[in-house]
Amino acid sequence: MIHHSKNPTTIRDVAKQAGVSVATVSRVINQNTPVSEEVEQRVHNVMRELHYFPKTAARNLSTQKTNAIGFILYDMVGGFFAPLLSGIEMFASQHGYQLLIATTRYQFKSSDFSLPLGPHNTDGLLIYANSLPEDRIHTLYEMNYPMVLIHRTPPQSLVIPSVTIENKQATEDVISHLIEIHQRKRIVLLRGPRAEEDSHWRELGFLQAHTRHNLPVFDELLLPGEFNQEVAFNSIRHLVENKIPFDAIFSGDDEAAVGALNALNHFGIGCPQEVSLVGFDDQNIASCLSPKLTTVYAPTQDVGRVAAEQLISILNGEVPDSLTLLPTQMIIRKSCGC
Questions:
Q1: Could you tell me if residue 206 is inside a domain?
Q2: What gap in Å lies between CA 291 and CA 279, rounded to an integer?
């Protein structure tokens, strides 16, 4: 995005109106040394008022091209991230870029959240799902800093390229399979993290399959899974210990499916004889479980590759696609009862 103006505003104009030094404005823009929240807010407000958009190259004389791209994610728990990382890394290194990785889990809620990666050490950023507070994305956007979002759409009114997968239809297909082929009527939903868009669309697909088959959704069967083995285990334990009947589980992702299967085994419940189990992602572990896991194949490595491709195309001055939606596909194995 290039912003034109007849009389371009300079960093000095911003400093003057905000009542701070040019160095302070530079610090706010480059996010390389902390400034107080109040000052940062004031500088951003003035930048907005004056329509000041620092050019990537002129952001700061010390900010030269780094030949590195950054990948920010909340945490790296579980087997999901290995293929995603390899997709990004492979494409980046083929095009002469190093990959820097940072997690934000431990500082996400802190008031002095400073960007571990950004204009001060990378040429552009890949941002996974909800790993950055929205105001930080706004800040980077206002600076014209190159970004691509992974597994999320941009905040309202911001035009930022996004790479994700088709979640809803695939979930509807796998739930319909449980209903039509295996006559399952009380299906557990182990929800993903509430803030993640993938969770939202998968839940919608789950509900849509029930509506399509005139099957009631039972509130007591909608439980946390958090894409996490332990959380999923505890949710299934809750059902068993409270004698709440269920005959199938949709686990939101394969990581949670492992937890659900461990719980079924722990309580001596036959899978798939008594309870069908399906996951999402088709991680490597899915075909190693016993029974092998029916799931939805998500092209996770391709998501990483395409995201890196989009970011590098921006860095090369090309116009990226605004949204890339990669297809998914149901994979039938034994755990559903087939």
A1: yes
A2: 12
Residue 44 DSSP label: H
Each residue of 145-168: pLDDT tens digit?
Answer: 999 999 999 998 899 999 999 999
Element (H, E) at 212: helix 197-212
Q: Which of 146, 147, 24, 121 is nearest to 64 (CA)?
A: 121
- pLDDT tier at 5, thresholds 50, 70, 90: very low
pLDDT at 169 over 80: yes
Q: How far apart are CA 196 and CA 180, in angstroms?
A: 29
Three-class SS state of 314: helix
Residue bearing tokens 């989009």: 310
E strands, 41-105, in order: 68-73, 98-103
CATH of the domain at 12: 1.10.260.40
Dump pLDDT digits (tens) for 93-121: 999 999 999 999 877 766 667 788 888 88
Judge whether 150 and 163 are in contact, CB under 8 Å.
yes
Spatial CB neighbours of 40, under 8 Å, sequence gap ≥ 6: 28
The first and second tokens of residue 85, run together, are 């990382």
Instruction: Let me know if residue 329 belongs to a domain.
Output: no
Whether 335 contacts 179, CB under 8 Å:
no
* Residue 8: domain span: 1-62
Does the pLDDT of residue 89 top 80, yes or no?
Answer: yes
Task: Say which amino acid occupies 1.
Answer: M
> Of 11, 36, 62, which one is at a domain's C-terminal end?
62
* Single-letter amino acid, residue 189: L
Residue 179 falls within a domain, yes or no?
yes
Percentage of the chain beyond pLDDT 70 is 92
| Distance set, CA 179 to CA 184, 247, 250 (Å) | 5, 10, 12
What pLDDT score was predicted for residue 61? 42
List pLDDT tens digits, range 218-247: 999 999 999 999 999 999 999 999 999 999
